[in-house]
Amino acid sequence: MYAVLDIEATGGKKGEEDIIEVAIYRYDGRQVVDQLISLVCPERKIDAYVQKLTQITPKMVKTAPKFHELAKRIIEITNGAVLVGHNVEFDYRMLKQEFKKLGYTYYRETIDTVPLSEKAFPEANSYSLGKLSKELGIPVSDRHRAAGDARATLELFKLLLEKDSLKSISKLEEEKKRVSQKFASVYEEMPNEIGLVYFLNQKKEVIYLTRAINIALATRKILTGKSGLSNKIRLEFATVRHEITGNELISWIKEANEKKRLKPKLVRNTNGFDFPYTLFVEIKDGYKTLKLDRNHRKRPNPVFQILSLKMGQKILSLITEEFQLCPKLNGISPADLDCLSFEVGECNGACKQKESPDSYNQRVDEFLEKIKLENKNFLLIEEGRRLGESSFVWVNDGVCVGYGYYELHHQIKDRKRIKERMTTVEKDSDIDSVVKGFLFTEKYRELITLPL
Question: Where is each Exonuclease domain found (predicted)?
Fold first, then answer.
């Protein structure tokens, strides 16, 4: 069974869009047996570009049902079906995003008609839905509207099924369903909460653990994934357990500490480091520059360790922007080109020696002071695991020493009471790097300074 769909959205930053129209055709391989076509009233404005492209206006969606009013119907029409779409990842992401707002983990297997079309029609001039449909003689009405695009995708999918002489699409569907159904009872019992997931073998040994923004979703991804790591976990695990942490900061800290304590045999990174990249300070012509490099933990002037190159580049860009540093000096802009930020007035010209090193370095020092742990004693306060509960992370004399939970403020008013409620963690540069990252992004509710 297939659910061929198309979603139209408001536009905006990834993760912040809302659905404005949905069309789903439930297809049994021979005929459409059910369908859902509806405008959706979004919570945010529709971008002007989207209005022009789709001809969907704020007035049209004003009286349309909100997503939560359609949610049950969407679950029903896609139940037991594989989602089929042209660039289906976008449509699937939008559905998961909307369901997440409702506290529900939405999971379906997917088939994307784009790579299937590339394989079936290698001579096509384009694989965009409109151009490919025209080239194949598939009629398209209401282009860039959900119903029109979903109907065109359905006709394309029918053609792909006809050309699939080896029945590879059907086999793909059956395999995805088999793997998904096998582990459904495991991940469907998991909560949609922030925390850790532990995979244990028959001997009750933890073979793998990971932090998760959504425990249920992370468990499902691991058990149904195609990676070598997922394959190894599926072969060896016997049971799965979880722990809710209530917030990201403690999930990061607890993950690092648990890996040291439990030493699981399966890990994400085979190089031995979960934080393989280092941000460090380097002096160039008197200017303090921030550099990102791999496996340089012993390099002088390290700032903190970072999980991945992509995350490191993002953090470095945010630091450069917030403290008005030079992207060219920090290695963000190409070395062989002029500094565009200087040309548009967003850089003070340190890369051209038009700003003195003392002036520039003062802003670098402001960043370093913001994330500094040395000679500091404080609590980072965040949400707890349940309503009415809060959490703390304690940095004592420059080192993260533990975390805990409390309900009343007097329960953390002095060191003795903090220690009574605290779970101790081993001294670890990775954990300190996590704390520094949260200090920089200010992803905490409150910072309480304690006497040294």
Answer: 1-166
